[in-house]
Amino acid sequence: MYLETPQTFDNRYFKNLVAGKGLLSSDQVLFSDPASRTSVRDFASSPGDFNAAFTTAMKKLGRSGVKTGDRGQVRKDCTAFNS
Predict the structure, then answer these.
(1) Terminal Cα-to-Cα distance of the chain (whole angstroms)
(2) What torsion, rounded to 10 degrees, do the Cα atoms 6, 23, 2, 48 define?
(3) Could you tell me which of 22, 49, 46 has the C-alpha nearest to residue 33?
(4) How confident is the model at residue 71 (pLDDT cuts 50, 70, 90)?
(5) 68 marked ligand binding residue
(6) pLDDT tens digit string along 34-63?
(7) Using CA atoms, how far apart are residues 42 and 57, in angstroms rounded to an integer?
(8) What is the phi/psi pair of residue 80, to 5°?
(9) How far apart, in whole angstroms, are the C-alpha atoms of residue 4 and residue 23?
């Protein structure tokens, strides 16, 4: 099994979790935790379900009211406002 598919946006991440090959231990918890295990299995076995969920999440994120121009700023440090 390949650990990555760098040229493709796919569900390989979830397949790796099911196989016990999560990149970070904090990633692997998604599969070991009963609250998220069903979703990980579903995304690993169904690229269509993964793509649909990703599309839905991106649409929601797009409505989050990102501030642009002089109404917002790109932070140099994500934990603090720029001075």
Answers:
(1) 47
(2) -70
(3) 22
(4) confident
(5) no
(6) 999 999 999 999 999 999 999 999 999 888
(7) 16
(8) -150, 150
(9) 10
How confident is the model at residue 47, as a pLDDT?
A: 94
Residue 56 assigned to a binding site: no
Residue that has been written with the tokens 């076995």 in this structure? 45
Q: Provide the 10 A C-beta neighbour count for residue 38.
A: 9
Burial class of residue 42 (count of CB atoms within 10 Å of its CB; 0-12, 13-18, 19+): middle
Instruction: With H, G, I as helix, E, B as strand and everything else as coil, classify residue 71.
Output: helix
| Alpha carbons 21 and 1: distance in angstroms, whole number | 10
Query: How is the chain split into domains, by residue range?
Result: 20-57
pLDDT value, residue 6: 74
d(CA 63, CA 16): 31
